[in-house]
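Human: Can I borrow your eye for a moment on a structure tokenisation matter? Separate attempts, laid side by side, tell us more than any discussion would. Could you pick a protein and write out its sequence and tokenised fold? No explanation is needed for now; the record alone will do.

Assistant:
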Amino acid sequence: MTEQEIIRGCQRKDKKAQEFLFENYKEVLMAVIRRYMSDMPSAEDVLMDTFMKIFSHINSYKGTGSFEGWMKRIAIREALMVLRKNSKMHYKENEQLPTEGISAAIIQELEVETIMQHIMALPDGYRVVLNLYAIEGYKHREIAEMLDISIHTSKSQLRMARKKIEEMLSQSGISSSSKKNYSS
């Protein structure tokens, strides 16, 4: 089944097309949702809400841009809505933190799983902004609009998330002053 056939089938509310869409995109969308939701039951709920929204709004997909990207944006909005509704995101403003991120040497020492564990351990507000900015590629202005916060708060949350990850790495025995040479 091609993507266009799946979309047309879902527009007709064809159960086989909907099932095919679900089976082929559930893992991709769950990976996106897990970056925002700290526990699996909440992530599973958001996944179901995401598919319900996709199926009920499939006619609004105009065919411009990536269909997968369109679905990922719905998944992100659904996750943010749950976090906002549960008041899990807390933002701190006006904290002075270093603007440097994690050094490339540290990143090269870590496994993806370790990085994800550290990201998932962040407070929700930090994790959401870090995901939106560093992984999804949104600008601070867009993040501020999505989360109904100021641009300054978005920038501050990103700095604090980076600082918190650096602290966690330091506690794990990986320091930002690592002198390992990776140029070979």
